[in-house]
């Protein structure tokens, strides 16, 4: 089968011809329609999970995927052959990922029935970004009418978070680098757009909201950038960073809830997303669909932080 993999840590991804996996007890074999690219995919290539989980080389990349159940192993009860599923395919050993025509996934992994209102190819864009956005908003726990600043809003997580926050009645402020992106974010529900190329974000937000904002979701900033943004949050507000640069003592001193945030993938969260998508409440922000042969270049762009929306690798029809 065709797969995008690396032969060792830090290697450049390449398309390889690898054996199709055999179903094992407690797992499902999925014929992968598409895989979604996330920064965590190349971080695994760099060894972020080394020492935490065993690895198998050649290491097939990819966490997010969607496809059709081809076979079920002994003891599997949640899924049947022919089910359309999506979710996070990551499991032990690392290296049996979603960037392949077929993937083995434990039944207990964060996978669920895919939304029926969108193609499987599109569903592959949802799992990590969608669950991150939904769980982050749950943790921020803001109330209708309150203000939320999303820094790094034009990527996959930010695109989902903007829609979900607007749906909750929040006044969403987003950061962009070009006016065209601002127009797209307004279509997704942003009430205010800050172009960080024109002037520092903190300066612009402070001028527009002198009384402060209620919440912050920072998806990209360094420690200095997050601290500057946190200064905009009212005492007693909430602030999260997915870059793990928060200083708990500084937040606690101002009674700001939150800090460093990590997604906890779960079937229950995926099922919530499925319902929101099938009810038409959430658009899935697919920026481009590429072939496996184009994946190495797309991964290189992701390393540079140049993602907009989501990039999907189409693995099979």
TrEMBL record:
CDD domains: MDR_like_2. Residues 5-313 form the Enoyl reductase (ER) domain. SMART domains: PKS_ER. It comes from the Bacteria. InterPro entries: ADH-like_C, ADH-like_N, ER, GroES-like_sf, NAD(P)-bd_dom_sf, YIM1/Zinc_Alcohol_DH_Fams. GO terms for molecular function: oxidoreductase activity. This is NADPH:quinone reductase-like Zn-dependent oxidoreductase.
């Amino acid at each position: 089968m065709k797969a995008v993999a690396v032969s060792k840590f830090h290697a450049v991804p390449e398309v390889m011809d690898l054996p199709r996996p055999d179903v094992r007890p407690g797992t499902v074999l999925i014929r992968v329609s598409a895989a979604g690219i996330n920064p965590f995919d190349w971080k695994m290539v760099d060894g972020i999970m080394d020492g935490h989980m065993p690895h198998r080389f050649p290491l097939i990349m990819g966490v997010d995927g969607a496809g059709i159940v081809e076979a079920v192993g002994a003891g599997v009860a949640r899924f049947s052959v022919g089910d359309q599923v999506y979710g996070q395919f990551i499991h032990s050993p690392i290296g049996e990922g979603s960037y392949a025509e077929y993937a083995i996934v434990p039944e207990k992994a964060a996978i669920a029935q895919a939304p029926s209102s969108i193609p499987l190819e599109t569903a592959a864009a949802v799992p990590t970004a969608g669950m991150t956005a939904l769980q982050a908003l749950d943790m921020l726990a803001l109330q209708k009418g309150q203000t939320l600043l999303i820094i790094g809003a034009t990527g996959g997580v930010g695109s989902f978070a903007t829609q979900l926050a607007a749906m909750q009645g929040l006044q969403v402020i987003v950061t962009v680098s070009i006016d065209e992106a601002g127009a797209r974010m307004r279509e997704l529900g942003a009430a205010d757009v800050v172009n960080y190329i024109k002037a520092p974000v903190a300066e612009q937000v402070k001028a527009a909201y002198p009384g402060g904002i209620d919440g912050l979701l920072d998806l990209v900033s360094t420690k200095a950038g997050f601290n500057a943004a946190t200064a905009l949050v009212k005492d007693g507000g909430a602030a999260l960073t997915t870059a793990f640069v928060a200083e708990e003592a500084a937040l606690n001193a101002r009674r700001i809830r939150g800090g460093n945030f990590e997604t906890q993938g779960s079937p229950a969260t995926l099922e919530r997303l499925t319902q929101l998508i099938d009810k038409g409440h959430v658009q899935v922000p697919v920026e481009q669909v590429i072939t496996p042969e184009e994946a190495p270049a797309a991964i290189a762009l992701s390393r540079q932080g140049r993602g907009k929306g989501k990039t999907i690798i189409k693995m099979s029809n």
